[in-house]
Known about the structure:
The complex is a heterodimer of chains A (283) and B (245). Chain A is an all-alpha fold and 283 residues long.
Amino acid sequence: MASVREIASAREAPAAVPGASARTARRGRRRILAANGLALLAFVLVWEVGSRALRSSFFPGPLIVGRTFVSLLVEGDIQGYTLLTHASVSLYRVLLGFAASCLTAIPLGIVLGLWRPLYLGTRIVSEPLRFIPPLAWIPLAILFFTGLGRYVFLIWVGAFFPLFILTMNAVSTASPLYVEVARVFGAGRWFIALKVIVPGALPQIVGAMRAVMSPAWMCIVAAEMVAAELIGLGQMIFNYATLLRMDVVIVGMLSIGVLGLVLNEAFMAIERAIFRYRQEVRL
Amino acid sequence: MLEYRNVHKAFDVDGGRLAVIQDFTASIREAEFVVLVGPSGCGKSTLLRITAGLESFSSGEVRIDGAAPDPRGRGRLGFVFQDAALMPWRDLLSNVTLGLEIRGVPKPEREERGLELLGLLGLQGFEHYYPHQVSGGMRHRVAIARAYIVDPVILLMDEPFVALDAQTREGLQRDLLDLWQRLKKTVIFVTHNLEEAILLGTRVIVLTRRPASIRLDREVRLPVPRDPTNPDFVALRQELRELLT
């Protein structure tokens, strides 16, 4: 088998040469890592200098915020909930809502993408709904849902429409060439839909899931801020803002940002793993 | 086995009608290797697409073994597209076996035939590679194998090697000829490369500028394998070139 490969690759050079390009890629990654380290350092420095210049107790510097961060992490807040509890509860809510919108928006987007007339014929209903910001749903959510259901509903509302639209577009713009390839062999509608169009659109659909993850995450914080509960990052920020404890508020803000980054990176790693075939050769 | 009678094709463009094919009449016999050449944009590809049932035509008649072209019928056609058009999410083997999968051939059987064809084209060992992992020439071999696997009555090839470098192209031409001699399919091959046309074809049909009709329909009786330096080869190429300018 090895010899056959050698013959074939001698005849036509294979598409990628792993050795050299991997080395340059590694070097590039190291450089990016170093640059990010510097950027982080610069950010903390500017912050520290800024807070010293301002000399306001409402804008604590990184040292004070760092101390608060540790104490929130270890001892918890006034009620005894640690930062990890707040974060994991928020994360749990957002993932449930996100799952709910994936389970509804993706199938609907696929169906309407395959069958455009149904979308075009119902646009008068779906388009205005799409432009209602998720926050505008909060009063209704408060009246009709309680506890976890309320958060799940708000996340669902925020993520559903963008995900639905992006999925539908991915499906309806799937390459007509692959469809023709299948048609020449006499493929029927179902085969073309399920084995040609949907797999072709899948990378874009998963990309859309990632794109929608960040508004969903932003939604949860806003939703928690208005709800009367004790746990959750948004709730923590809101409660401590009324106490003018800006150090806790900033810890909450930064936690939201960092968790958002982690979610996004995790999603990208999953994408890279399942869509290896999409990685074009870079020279 | 393949009959075109007074085929016309026009597209609607901005209220007017653009005639692409005019009065195309030809009769193609079994196991012929017909090469269609003509100025670019003259409607060669449209003719192939009509034959495959991917495109309708305005008037006239196309008959494949007496039946109208319809891919939904029995899938008797193989089509090799300009850029290999392999599905990037399938590995080479499942790209090759696509046609059999569509016809509902059980997996072990279709994989056996897929491996056999990949072997014929020098691709054994690569069956589980993905299209992006192999070279352009290899992708085109897979595209040819994919068209052959359904045992088509007619193989339609739309400028299949146009994007390849000269060396890879020569290798593929050789392999295609081997395969054709072994399996004797009727082939209709579109190109605008005259040397390729004479190298491969048992018959060359030269089309006019749009709307396409037949300018010249000539059997090529040169000995096989063909030698581009052979005086008759050179003379025929010269003749075709003059027709096209």
